[in-house]
Amino acid sequence: MTQDPIGLKGGMNLYQFAPNVQAWVDPLGLARFCTRALKALPGSSDIDPNFRGGLDLGFFHEHIFYDDGTNIGYGGDGLFSETSIQGYKCSSTHYDDETMRQAVNNVKNRTKPTLEKADNGEIVIRNNPVFGNDNYSLLMNNCQDFATEVEKDILKIKKVK
């Protein structure tokens, strides 16, 4: 058994604990996936954020928080930031902020071809953002889908490094 199972990736202080385990900000540059109950659905419940199985149909909101206090999530109005981490439960799995930001940017910039009717009546193919402001869907393209795609991209980035 070692006092540093992740090989100093958690920082130099092997005995550092968070002063507020419910709403702490990580000073060492490690981002996390966090969940909370849905605001619009009373009685909904968040889920243990350590459960990241790719089944994106839970009744909870999933969000990404960085160590510097910034954050990003996806909702009915597109990508957004929360004003507070209060009410969230965060995963015990930490990701390097730089890698997380790269993955988020990759996912934010993804497009998909869609057929649309142009003003002149012709059918045209346009590349629209996968996680844009106009294509949120509670069942098929939601906050959990965004988080899952970011996590998948993190794994791809790690394989390349």
Nutshell version of this structure?
This protein has 161 residues and is an alpha+beta fold. It is 19% helix and 24% strand. A hairpin with a 5-residue loop joins strand 2 (61-65) and strand 3.
Can you characterise this structure?
- The chain is of the alpha+beta class.
- It is built from 2 helices and 8 strands.
- It has one domain.
- The protein has helices spanning 97-108, 143-160; strands spanning 30-36, 61-65, 71-75, 78-80, 89-90, 95-96, 111-117, 123-129.
- The two termini are 28 Å apart.
Report how far the terminal alpha carbons are from each other.
Answer: 28 Å
Shape: globular
Strand content: 15-25%
Catalogue the unreliable spans: none
What is the fold's blueprint, element by element?
Blueprint: E1 30-36, E2 61-65, E3 71-75, E4 78-80, E5 89-90, E6 95-96, H1 97-108, E7 111-117, E8 123-129, H2 143-160
Antiparallel strand pairs: 1-2, 1-5, 1-6, 2-3, 3-4, 7-8
Features:
161 residues, six-stranded antiparallel beta sheet, two-stranded antiparallel sheet, 2 helices, 8 strands
